[in-house]
Amino acid sequence: MIARLQQVDKVYANGVVALRGLDLDVGEGEFLSLLGPSGCGKSTVLRLVAGLGEVSGGRIEWSGGNGRPGDIGFVFQEPTLMPWATVRKNVLLPLTLRGVPLEEADARGREAIGMVGLDGFEHAYPRELSGGMKMRVSIARALVTHPRLLLMDEPFASLDEITRFKLDNDLLALWARQRWTVVFVTHSVYESVYLSTRIAVMTARPGRTASEVAIEAPAPRDETFRTSPLYNEYCRSVSARLAEAIRS
Amino acid sequence: MSGGPRTSSLSSIEPKRAADGAGVGDLDTTRAAAPPRRSDVWGGVRRVLPPIAIGVTGLVAWELLVRLKQIPYYILPGPLLVIGTLVKDWSTLYPSLLVTLAITGAALLVATVAGVLIAILFTQSRWIELSLFPYAVILQVTPVVAIAPLIIIWVKNIPLALLICAWIVAFFPIVSNTTLGLNSADHNLLNLFQLYGASRRQVFWHLKLPSAMPYFLGGLRISGGLALIGAVVAEFVAGTGGVQSGLAYRVLEAGYTMQIPRMFAALLMITGTGILIFLALTLLSHLVLRSWHESAVKREG
Questions:
Q1: Residue contact A94–B30, C-beta within 8 A
Q2: Prediction ipTM score
Q3: What is the sign of the dihedral through the CA atoms of A129, A87, B198 and A29?
Q4: Could you give phi then psi for residue B40, rounded to 5 degrees?
Q5: In this predicted model, which residue has the larger pLDDT, A221 or A107?
Q6: B contact residues 11-50, partner A, Cβ 8 Å cutoff
């Protein structure tokens, strides 16, 4: 178990109740998707798991027991890169902030840049890259600390479908090799079924988990899975659960 | 083909431009920092041609008007006479230019250092900004001509008094722009820095300062011109003669003694200086931002 949320409430300063009585377990090594309508508090859950912000009620426990999240990588909906810094410097940022010696940082930076397939672009500036490439830089930055837990907040939502499919596949391949735990926020049924080992379906605001679905499909998934009957079956059942969650 | 319809007057260079333009790809990997292509140079020349044409036409018309109407030089000297006077009186005007430049430069330097420091102070706490910002505005909106006499009475050292006047005019754009810039850091990036446990100092150096850079440089460009105006206005009010007198005093002096051509020559120098300051700061801004900021990067495609 990586993190456990119990009866978590979150009320923002402006009175908006984002979460009400949310229970969620994040297990070691799983690819968990949070699926729900927009505004249901998916991103809020992610921020709370990351330790960015306090719960208004209930509790969050992280494994390790010191009451803090451990090493976490965070990928936002937007690439969120520093425009004045090269790809290399953007990727190295987490290590720079922690004062990791330059030589070691450089080696890990190269490794992370290689993992997302951006070799040769170390010295490019973000504005010289396409949307998909910027997102890859953002993922490399999240991976450079070798996190146990990778949090992704609708990371591919603003990309075109071709780029999104490609990044989905690359992300799955990386996850299959590295086996960190992923919590992936999305509002796409299809994307969540394709990627996840488990899906938590959330209700409309105030958000809580309405139901959970384990996706038991064989591990190396590729494009053939997208057209398989099993995939379609899962999409149908998850869609039904989502519709039900929104109604309730 | 790029820009075909506008190039009729420069048809002889058109083939070359087309050849250069053909190499520009739309690949992700196209780098912006390529050396300037020939077409860029010609594009630049074409852009400055119209204002130069207007200027030359105006000067010729002015010279003709003065000559044909036989306007006396103490009312309106022609441009040729002004240039002649500039050359003839260079030994008097040049030292004055240096005096004005020194005050402008010093005022801009102090305005930059103080402005950035004040902006940093403002962003440390909302309360500091709320308490002090109105006074920065008051200092900005009070006409410098109106307070210059007071400052000159209070501060006995004239160059110092002039510097203070020029500083008052110049520092506000830097303060307000830099404050805005420091507060404009991307919120998600701030979250990211928090996630990685960045200290306040790290947030400042790695995030806020670079975010503020384009804003600061924009403010600096405005302040450069204002520092010169402040210095000249203060010199007018002080009206001091002697070795330490700047260009504004040369204008006053020429006015008193009806040396109108010299007055124009001094005016020309002030304007020229202002333009040079603006160009220098624009170049600085371009050099600092060229690799990443949209303002300094050519649009492609």
A1: no
A2: 0.86
A3: positive
A4: -60, -45
A5: A107
A6: 28-32
